[in-house]
Design a protein that fits this description.
With 294 residues, this protein is an alpha/beta fold. The chain has one domain: Spore Coat Polysaccharide Biosynthesis Protein SpsA, Chain A (Alpha-Beta Complex), CATH 3.90.550. It is 35% helix and 24% strand. It has a nine-stranded mixed β-sheet with strand order 5-4-1-6-11-8-12-10-9, with helices on both faces. Strands 2-3 form a two-stranded antiparallel ribbon. The chain has a two-stranded antiparallel ribbon with strand order 7-13. Helix 8 crosses helix 9 (235-246). The longest helix is centred in the C-terminal third of the chain and has 13 residues, at 263-275. The chain is globular, with a radius of gyration of 20 Å.
Length: 294
Amino acid sequence: MSEPSAKKVRKAVVPVAGLGTRFLPATKAVPKEMLPLVDVPSIQIIVEECVAAGIEEVIFVTARGKSAIEDHFDRAPELEALLARRGKKEDLAAVRRLTELARFVSVRQGEPRGLGHAVLCARAAVGDEPFAVLLGDDLLDAEVPGIRQLIDLHARTGTGVVGLKEVPVGQEHLYGIIDGERTAPRELRVRKLIEKPAPGTAPSRLAIIGRYVLPPEIFEILETTPAGRGDEIQLTDGLETLCARKGLYGLEVEGQRFDVGDRAGYVLALVHYALRRDDIRVEVRAGLEKLLRS
């Protein structure tokens, strides 16, 4: 086992440069990360997970047409003044709170060259320290924030950590899959990573989900990683090299996961978060029961 890292994980990289074509026409003018779960955009849930895990700085990797994400976490003087004049104190507090969640930095990914390239774009903003990566399509509702679970394992091992969830039989080819040696009930020392293995060839059903804690050495690796599947720089390929050089752990993350990059997954997440709301839970549950009976 590697020596524990002395550095705290203070920064999170959140790639949000994707076009969101699966949600057209809704995403023609609105970033997919801003689609609301009731009245909270999915990107806000990701940021709140970071904050709850002790992250101090959130680095968005953006592209053209994504300014609404930056605006969401920025001051809105005209709106704040209007809410103040109208005495809407709760709304005003909610709007101002967004700007105080963390420090926010934005960097541009000039062209869509893959997730590995998106992470590499954040190199200057991250610097020489371990950092978290959270994908905006993956929401985790957990008692201990999902990324916090990975940070804790990183603190004990000093190695990079990837988040894992077991997927149903026959769906392995849709994910990056790991092969590893179990070291604790939810922990594995990774031996191999395979990006979307051919059907029937996966070494396990443990899929990599959108949570990572990585050492700064990943940037040098990604810089020299050739384009892979889809002619893009794949983060999984970089992780293979990292695993061989410095070791890598996988952690089966506790909590309920929703893939909001998928239309059905988005609807399920919307229902889930609505049912957690004290102000609308009763009405939503009654409405769902009525729909299911019809």
